[in-house]
Amino acid sequence: MPTLFDHPLAPHHKLVGAWVAARETSPRQYTRAQARRRIEQVFQAAVSEILAPVDLADFRMTVLKGEEGEPPAIAIVCDSIGQIDLGWIETSDAPISWRAAAYRELEQNLSCILPIFSYEHLFDTISMYYWDGETDDEAARRCMIEYHGLDEADVDEQSLPSTMNARRPDWIIAANAARPAQLPSGLRQALRSLRHARRALKSLPEYNAWHFDIDLINQYVPYFEEVSTLPPLTLVPSDEFAAELDDVGRHGMEVGFMDIAGLCPLPDPDRIDDWLASLALGARFLLAAQALIALDPTKL
Q1: CA distance 253 to 37
Q2: What is the distance between the alpha carbons of residues 258 and 234, in angstroms, rounded to a whole number?
Q3: Nearest to 73 by CA among 280, 268, 277
Q4: Can you say whether residue 68 is alpha, beta or left, with left for phi > 0 and alpha for psi between -120 and 50 degrees?
Q5: Fewer beta carbons below 10 Å: N end or C end of the chain?
């Protein structure tokens, strides 16, 4: 993927360079090579400072040159793959209703920032792979016999919608989540903080650091049309669904996942401050999610 620093004379270098120059406390004359290094150092430092506390996923920033008169754009790429660590939600002996409430909140909100998929997405994909989109057992059996050529005697040895759903841990089932009034105050506060951070993200203008538009991504990174549409991260517990995750992830492992968390065009230097502010709001949201996952259930 081309970056800002690969093309010292490109228009996007001038864009970020103007922003850096405006913030230099001690202006000085730079050679072209020195200016390029200085732009890289200042901008990367600003991004790193914002993202440093985030350990839910690994991110990197890359600046893309616009083609045919399009402005440069900054993309945030997620370098993590697999199930995110769910901490106490997955492993503790806390009441199922507490764990389900926390999991539901993550499931409903994390995709606004992270390239991540849920159990529902996994189930729908497996249904398309093996049952032609059917979601009840009888229809799935007919599909496997009529369209996949399985013998009737062999069908019951295959995974069916009901058997797949039966493997879900109780804590990922939304119906098991307790109402807010039934939760301990520490957990209620953590859930409230995550919701507040999510609402702050909704107030951002359309083009922000975490803006995701597949058509825009393909415009700036044409080879992404060839990668898997599957995000690299999941909330699905891998111990229970290892085979299914391998099935849906195989194509992504071969050609790449849809790992861009956000892409934002930047037509002028003034927009960079707004971009950094939106990056910080996203980091704040991820920190709220981390705090929820890091709770000690014995102290709730």
Answers
A1: 34
A2: 12
A3: 268
A4: left
A5: N
> Phi and psi dihedrals of 21, rounded to 5?
-60, -35
Beta bridge partners of 82: 233
Name the packing angle between helices 270-293 and 185-202 (round to 10°): 160
- Rounded CA-CA distance 117/239 in Å is 16
Assigned token pair, 60: 């990197």
pLDDT > 70 fraction of the chain, expressed in percent and rounded: 84
Q: Which residues pair with 116 in a beta bridge?
A: 233
Strand order in the sheet with 82-83: 82-83, 233-234, 116-117
pLDDT tens readout for residues 197-211: 999 999 999 999 999
In order, the DSSP letters of 148-203 are T---HHHHTTS--HHHHHHTS-GGG-GGGPPPGGGS-HHHHHHHHHHHHHHHHHHT
288-291 own/partner pairs: CB under 8 Å, 24+ apart: 288/190, 288/193, 288/194, 288/196, 288/197, 289/56, 289/106, 289/109, 289/110, 289/194, 290/54, 290/55, 290/56, 291/190, 291/193
Output the pTM of the full model: 0.86
One-letter amino acid of 223: Y
Locate 274 and state its tokens.
Answer: 């707004």
Which run of H or E residues covers position 74?
A: strand 73-78
Is the separation of the CB atoms in 101 and 177 below 8 Å?
yes
As a whole number of Å, the CA-based R_g of the chain is: 23
Query: pLDDT per residue over 18-28, tens digit each?
Result: 556 556 655 56
Give the H or E element holding residue 143.
helix 137-146
